[in-house]
Amino acid sequence: MKPVNLLCRLQLLGLLFVFACSRPQQTTQNRDLNVLFITLDTTRADHLSCYETEKADRSRKGARTPHLDALAAGGVRFAKAIAQVPLTLPSHACIFTGNYPEVHGLRDMVGFVLDPKQVTLASMARSAGFRTAAFVGSKVLDHQFGLQQGFDTYDDQISSAHDVEGRLVLPERPAAVTTDRALNWLRQNSGERFFLWVHYYDPHDPYDPPEPYKSNYVGDLYSGEIAYVDGQVGRLLEFLDQSDLRQRTLVAVIGDHGEGLNDHLEQTHGVFIYDETLHVPLILAGPRVPPGRVIQTQVRSIDLLPTVAEFLSLSANAAVQGTSLWPLIEQGKQMTGKGSNYAYIETLYPKTFMNWSELRGMRTDRWKFILAPKPELYDLEHDPTETANVIDQHPAEADHFQKKIWEVIGPPQSDRKLAVAPLDAQTRQELASLGYASAGSGRELVLDMKGPDPKDRVRTLNALDRYKQLSKAKSFGQAARLLQDTLQTDPGNPMVRLYLGITQERQGAWRQAIETYRNAIDARITTDEVYSRLGKAYLRVNDLDNAIIAMETAASKNPTDRENLCNLGTAHLLQKRPTEAEKAFKAILLQDDRYAAAYNGLGLVAVQQGDIDTARPNFEKAIELDPKQVEPLLHLGLLYRDKGDRQQALHYFTEFLEKAPQDYSHLLPQVRQSIRELQRAN
Ligand SMILES: [Zn+2]
Questions:
Q1: CA-CA distance, 225 to 175, in Å (whole number)?
Q2: Which of 44, 115, 158, 386 is the most exposed place for a label (fewest CB within 10 A)?
Q3: What average pLDDT does range 641-649 have in this prediction?
């Protein structure tokens, strides 16, 4: 035997020995363990009272968070936890796959789904026999994006009643409602081993906490939302205490990203990758977790999956990019996983929404490097608020971090064209059979770091913030002028053009909106949203031919846009083309069989085809799914009247009269007349 082999063997034995010693001794007790996983949307670490000592900027007050503080005091608090992306969907995908966005594939808010080959923490837990459930606070985390993988229950049933801005403001539900539903599930399922994820969206813009938080946090409603969520976390923990589950449940709390609050002239999040939008709270408490420990070492959101997997003795894929935090938690040891001291960060949002350059970066305990058209380097030890770019003084560090970025995403010359396809393969195939979503649909995104540097476009960001205020105050004329002005300096910006069109829609200026969307297409802004809104505007001025062309283009680019498909079906109905209309409504139901308006549409298709027996159950289904739907009431009234069933006809007409909103005022005299006639005939 050669000595060199012996040496290797000895080293290996040594490693095995260390491994055996550091291994948890509780595999047999793991049978009864549960996990309560809480994600706090848009929550800056420095706005929790337990993170007081980590405040880079002392002038920020933040929220009082007694429940999270107590949880941290009884467990481990990570002083420097870094989210990988300042956006809800990609960040949650990092948390639940343990991988960076390049690997998990859910790169941005629109146009991506989780790579189905990824194995989520929930899948791992379910395979190991856990009951799994998720209660999410916003449509942003709708099941269509793939994060429902592994959950027996994925509760994303959130009404879109408050969806006033169209798809740009997604419906959310208050933390108290999400908590009620999660507690309800716990009452029924906590007798078994469970993996429960609860997501609180409230701190996301707009900031509007309920009382007493609204009064207590006048002037800082963002913090008021965090305080409100803290109270809801308290309700979940109280249940664990009362049910004697606390000793058997690992509680993990993490923020998905922070909020700019204008620290770098960004009010919300998504465009920049400074710490205010990436430094998030991370607290672990429960069995095996030593109480009261604060860990200063930088950790990443991708480290949570291997950590929880190890806790539950689940076999994690060895290839995940995150590293288990247990050596750090239990022994204060530095992590030894490949690249574990480097947090890769990115945002494609400036590229996809603004047509600016995307941003990538690398963060360590000491440094933050941002790869941008004009790169930046910050010495966090001396400059925690990232105000002085020291790249000229430290070229070697900048070079090193740039290479580290290539290690994560591949060499700089590699092809970085991304096919943006907001669909999983199966849905795509099913939709293709209806004539939507041909293989080549979707669009291509070129990640070449080209385009304006986002930090040179803060004027646009400020204008968009001002626009939101004007829009909220219904000052549409002023809002439109502001956006037109912004287009002078940022003409390639799709979002500014889209908001201009939306503002004109809200003014009822449909012709102007049509012109805005046509101009956008001329400026090569050809997203599905531009086409769907163009189609809707044509529909409003009764130009059905152009409406259908635009909406079909939108549907081929993005067949997941159900509202567009619904409008398309309506346009076909108005053209008396029930077969075409039917395809559009069926394409919706393929993706969401609880979409009430699509059943109403199918009912009308059946009426046009003279098939009354099919029409009726479709209208009934629409009402059953969404009692706020009024059109099917009217249609059922008409069906029963024509059939001679006066009682039923009266019932539905009366209900329609009671519920119909202002938009239907032109129909009310006719409905009243019908009711009078039916009553006379009685
Ligand atoms: Zn978020």
A1: 9
A2: 115
A3: 93
User: The tokens of 611 are what?
Assistant: 């098939």
Of 311, 331, 354, the last residue of a domain is 354
Which DSSP letter does residue 172 get? B
pLDDT tens-digit map of 490-517: 998 988 998 999 999 999 999 999 999 9
CA of 326 to the centre of ligand 1 (A): 26
Please tell me the distance between residue 349's alpha carbon and the centre of ligand 1 in angstroms.
Answer: 13
Domain total for the chain? 2
**258 Cα to the center of ligand 1, angstroms:** 8
Answer for the pair 628, 658: CB distance below 8 angstroms, yes or no. Answer: no
Question: What single DSSP character describes residue 475?
Answer: -
284 bridge partner residues: 76, 252
Tell me the CA–centroid distance for residue 71 and ligand 1, in Å: 22
Provide the CATH number for the domain around residue 309. Answer: 3.40.720.10
Domain finish residue from 339, 354, 369: 354
| Domain harbouring 614, CATH code | 1.25.40.10
Which of 143, 142, 147, 261 minimizes the C-alpha distance to 205?
261
| pLDDT at residue 606, as a whole number | 96
Please check whether residue 649 lies inside any domain of the structure: yes
Q: Supply the pTM of this predicted model.
A: 0.84
Chain segment 243-263, per-residue pLDDT in tens: 999 999 999 999 999 999 999
Q: Which residues contact 35 (CB under 8 A, 6 or more apart)?
A: 125, 130, 194, 195, 196, 249, 250, 251, 252, 308, 311, 312
Tell me, in angstroms, the distance from the centre of ligand 1 to residue 83's CA.
11
C-alpha 69 to ligand 1 mean position (Å): 21
Residue that has been written with the tokens 């590229």 in this structure: 351
C-alpha of residue 330 to centroid of ligand 1, in Å: 30
The Å distance, Cα 85 to ligand 1 centre, comes to 10
- 516, part of any domain: no
Question: Cis bond leading into 212, ω under 30°?
Answer: yes
Cβ(48)–Cβ(210) below 8 Å:
no
Q: How far is the CA of 45 from the centre of ligand 1 (A)?
A: 14
- How many A from CA of 268 to the centre of ligand 1? 10
- Residue at 332 is within a domain: yes
* Extended strands (E) in 537-623: none
Q: Note down the domain range covering 608.
A: 594-682
Q: How far apart are CA 430 and CA 590, in angstroms?
A: 8
Question: Residue 450's CB: how many other CB atoms inside 10 A?
Answer: 12
In a domain, 316, yes or no: yes
Which residues lie closer than 8 Å to 207 by C-beta, 6 or more apart? 221, 222, 224, 225
| Other residues' Cβ atoms within 10 Å of the Cβ of residue 647 | 9
Cα angle 68-257-349, degrees, rounded to a multiple of 5? 165
Q: Which residues make Cβ contacts (< 8 Å) with residue 509, sequence separation at least 6? A: none
Question: Measured between alpha carbons, how far is 354 from 55 in angstroms, rounded to an integer?
Answer: 31
Which long-range contacts (C-beta less than 8 Å, at least 24 apart) are formed by 208-212? Answer: 210/174, 210/176
